[in-house]
Amino acid sequence: MPEQSAAHVHGTILKADDDQHLVWGWASVIEENGQAVVDSQGDVIGVQDLMDAAHGFMIDTRKGGIMHATRDGSAIKIGEVVESMVLTKDRQEALGIDLGKVGWLITMKVHDDAVWKAIKGGELRAFSIGGRGVRVPMQEG
To answer: What does the alpha-carbon distance between residue 37 and residue 23 come to, in Å, rounded to a whole number?
Structure first.
């Protein structure tokens, strides 16, 4: 039976807008310079799995939490994702761009002043998405 896996993927914050409390960057990068990115659990996320996760998140959740903290089993909301796009190779080609990476780019509106201060102060420099999946051995060849 395949092993259940829980993962946390970290992505870099690229820019913040002080006036609107918007922060944007990579929620997940799954490929850089043509090479698959291996996450901290040793897993590789496929394009379709990333798209499914991003679409499911936007349909069901859209809220952002802080450091995977929960209260009564629910994430402590500090804002919400207001923009989201999975930038696959095909989508980048259609847009006439080549970012050298494949991943999920998001913009988050932060409502919590303490979290915004931590972002601006450099304490929070990345997004972190959590997920669950079934571990499937990769086929070689």
So the answer is: 23
